[in-house]
Each structure stands twice: as C-alpha cells, then as structure tokens.
Write a structure and sequence with these properties.
Lyase, Ornithine Decarboxylase, Chain A, domain 1; TIM Barrel; 24 strands; disordered N terminus; 488 residues; 9-stranded mixed sheet; alpha/beta
C-alpha cells in the first residue's frame, strides 16, 4: 500500500533568518504537498517516493540521474480537465472552446499521442516542433503554427501539409503565407497576433496604449492587416490572437485583453466574418506551497463571463474562444530526480545574527533546468530515497555547473541528515525544463521517462558523452566509431 509517512518534529525548530518570507518550516519535512506534486506521488511503506507507482530508486537504477519523470496519467487527466472545464464554461454562454496544447512547454512523439487522444489541438512554433507532431501522426488540420520569424520554407511546408491555422505576426508574413497558399492551390486559414498592450504575470498586469515587444501587430494597425488578408483569395481570416504572459494566477489580465480585442473584433465584423477569438495561454501552476493559482474552473468561468458580458455590451455574437495552455497540463506532471553529491555549510552575516546556509550539490543543474537562472524561478524539493526524522534545516540546492547562479532550488527545508548518495526529487518540472535544456559544460541532456500504473518507459533517450562527441567533426576516430573511453 502506498502511504504518506507522517514524521513529527520538535516544536523548538526555528526558521532560519536567511529563509525567504514565504518559506515556513514544515511540520513534516517528508510530506508531499498535493498542490505541487503529481496526484499519484506517494511514499511507500519504506518511506521511498513513488511516481506513477514506480519507486524512485527503480527509476534511477534503470535510467541514472538526473532523470525527468513524467506521470502519464497526470498529463492525460489534466488535458481532459482543461478540455472539459473550458468547454463547459463557454458552452454556458452559447459558444465553444478550442484547446491548443502549447508544445513549447514540452513535446515528444509520445506526448503528442496523449494530446491527440484527449481531443486537443496543438500549438507549434518551429519546423522541429511541427516535425514531432507529424511524426506522431497528429492531424495537421488541428495544428496552430506560431512564430515571429517563420522562414519561407517553414511556411511552405506547413501550408502543403494542411496546417489548420497560421498565426500571422507581420504584414510581410501575410504576403509569404498568401504566396505559399496560392502556389499550393489551397486557401490557408490565418489568425493575426495582436499587440494588445496588456502584459500579465502572477497577480499583476500592466495595460498600456502600446507595448514594446517583438510579437504581434498593434491594435491600431489590425484593421488594415485584416483588410489585406481579405483581399487575398488564398487566405481565410479566422480571428485575432493574444498572448499576455506566463505563470498567470488570475483572470484580470485576460479580462482586459478580451475587452480590447473584442472592441476591434466588433469593427472587423463590419467587413466579414470573424468566427474565433484566441486568448492564448499562460495559466500558472504551483511550484511551491506558497503559490496560489486560481483553479481552472474559476479561470474558465470568469473568462467566459467577461467575453459574454462584453459581447452583449457590443451587440455582437459570442465567437468560438481558443486557449493555448501548456504549463498547466504538463508542468505538475513532471518530477526531476537527482543524486546529492556534496554538502557545504556557509556562514552568512545577517542583520539579526550570523546564520548558516547549507548547500546541497546535485548532479545536474542549469543544463536541465535553467528557469531559476533565467527567471529567478522558485522550486520545492524532497528526499526521494527515504524519509527522515532529523530536524529541518534551510538548504540551497546547487547544480554542478561552473556558474555561481547555477541553483536548482533557491530555498527549502530538508532533513539535516540529507547528504551524499541520497536521491532528491524536484516537482513541477514537466514544463520548460527539458525544452530549455542545454549541453552547458558538456553535460548530456537527461532522459525523459513516463510512468504509469507501476511501469515506466522512455519518452526521450538521454544523451551520453558519446552522443555529444559524435557531433564533433574533429574527433579522431574511424568513421562511425568512438573510442571506448568516451563511449559512456
């Protein structure tokens, strides 16, 4: 039986003054917060972390560390939840919702199959992502193709394949898509990405008249662009598209963007049909126990209410509304397993009293998760190979790269006896970790392993040193052969 093992601590344990204000000393340093971990994450009778019914030690024996672990059932459940929740909310106002999975969060042939089976559409933004979708047999008519600098070849390949919609980002791109569609003898459906002047993140959003960024076309220029689209026999206008930010916890920014877009939408209806409105993605998830994103049901209902009210005020029909979630589907399903290699206590002068910060160094880092370095992203962590009744201590989980900013988890309380050889698990790593991974310091990218019903399988193979060296044109070896000492 899978259980969560309760471990109590002394009431005399005090917060380290170096800890951020949002981080409190946990009552149970072994507990798995259900808001952060996959729903099927648990501890077995021996206290070991299990993911999808597979023990952490078993995953590490087979795949090594670091290893990305994705709970397949969690992804499928969350895809269905988004589909049903937004579908019901917009059906309630007499419309419908199209859910596009944002492939940039994480993409593999296997995952595309899960998305297809859930009945979702797919959002891609490069020829590589498009190739993954095609390799998985995904219906191109259900794909939306993004990007601010699509090449002529990318556009031509997408048009010939029958892609469902291309999101136009400039007037020049309009001409390229029209030409490609004309040469292919098809009518290509297009959306126009708007620069709405709304930018949102967590609970805050900024609304301005203009926003200085590389994406989209200013609202003031949309009418001329749509007129040009309608003048092209090879193009069909679907509607406007907006993306206001990432890791958004409430609907304030979406509401403002919807109001701005629907005002333009109303004007465009005078020249022809505008069947859809795409409000993009960016819905947030919990990375730590302090994060409090609004439930998807609340987001869906509030977005639908705003669209319905604004359409009623403007006296226009409610369009089909499209959304593009990625992180909220795959992010909470991912957990990265590491092995702790070194520990170090650093004495830090502090205003109150000198304090100690403990560094735990693991065998990965910014090459498998650059988000802390890029965005200051916060993560959580727990021992995976065992539980402990040792007192909680403040730790900073560091990577092994030659960078002082190579931090995996900035601040967390872990058992005082956590040390070399222990397995460490970092949750909520399903989105933007593998997809942003690199080979910095010549580390291979870890494998991605799916777990479900007590079994595991590889989604994406990890890279060995041999794989990295194989790309080096000056490697002194016979064609196709590597020296034994590098083939590991």
């Amino acid at each position: 039986m899978l259980v969560k093992v309760p471990v109590t601590r002394s009431d005399t344990t005090r917060a380290n003054p170096l800890a951020p204000s949002w981080l409190s000393v946990p009552a149970d340093v072994n507990a798995l917060d259900p808001a952060v971990w996959p729903r099927r994450a648990a501890r077995d009778d021996a206290g070991e972390l299990t993911l999808g019914g597979v023990a952490a030690s078993a995953l590490v024996r087979e795949h090594g560390t670091p290893v990305y672990v994705v709970d397949e059932a969690e992804v499928r459940d969350r895809a269905a939840l988004v589909r049903d929740t937004f579908g019901a909310a917009f059906a309630g106002i007499g419309s419908s919702a199209k859910v596009y999975y944002a492939g940039k969060a994480f993409l593999s042939v296997g995952l595309v199959g899960w998305i297809a089976e859930a009945g979702l559409h797919l959002d891609v933004c490069s020829d590589g992502e498009f190739a993954v979708a095609m390799a998985a047999g995904f219906d191109p008519a259900r794909i939306g193709y993004h990007g601010n600098n699509k090449s002529v070849r990318e556009i031509e390949d997408a048009v010939r394949a029958g892609v469902g919609a291309i999101v136009l980002d400039s007037s020049l791109e309009l001409q390229r898509v029209a030409r490609a569609a004309q040469e292919a003898g098809v009518v290509q459906r297009v959306r126009v990405r708007t620069n709405s002047g709304v930018h949102a993140s967590t609970h805050e959003y900024l609304a301005t008249a203009h926003e200085d960024q590389k994406f989209g076309i200013a609202l003031a220029d949309i009418a001329d662009v749509v007129q040009a689209i309608r003048a092209e026999p090879s193009l069909e206008f679907l509607g406007l598209h907006s993306h206001i930010g990432s890791q958004i916890f409430d609907t304030g920014g979406f509401a403002e963007a919807a109001r701005r877009l629907l005002a333009v939408h109303q004007e465009l209806l005078e020249g022809g049909p505008v069947p859809e409105l795409n409000l993009g993605g960016g819905f947030g998830i919990a990375y730590t126990s302090a994060d409090d994103p609004a439930p998807l049901g609340t987001i869906a209902e509030e977005m639908a209410a705003v669209v319905a009210a604004e359409c009623a005020r403007l006296g226009i029909p409610v369009p089909v509304v499209a959304i593009e979630p990625g992180r909220t589907i795959v992010g909470p399903a991912g957990v990265t397993l590491y092995e702790i290699g070194m520990t170090k206590d650093v004495r830090v002068e502090h205003a109150e009293t000198p304090a100690v910060r403990r560094y735990l160094s693991v065998d990965g880092g910014m090459s498998d998760n650059p988000r802390p370095e890029l965005y200051g992203a916060e993560y959580s962590a727990r021992l995976a190979s065992r539980t402990s009744d040792a007192e909680p201590v403040l730790v900073r989980v560091a990577g092994k790269h030659c960078e002082s900013g190579d931090i995996v988890v900035n601040a967390e309380y872990l058992p005082a006896d956590a040390g070399p050889g222990d397995l460490l698990a970092v949750p909520a790593t399903g989105a933007y970790c593998w997809s942003l991974a690199s080979n910095y310091n010549y580390l291979g990218r870890p494998p991605v392993v799916a777990v479900r019903d007590g079994a595991s399988r590889v989604l994406i193979r990890g890279e060995r040193i041999a794989d990295l060296l194989a790309r080096d044109a000056d490697l002194p070896a016979a064609p196709g052969v590597l020296r034994p000492e590098v083939d590991r």
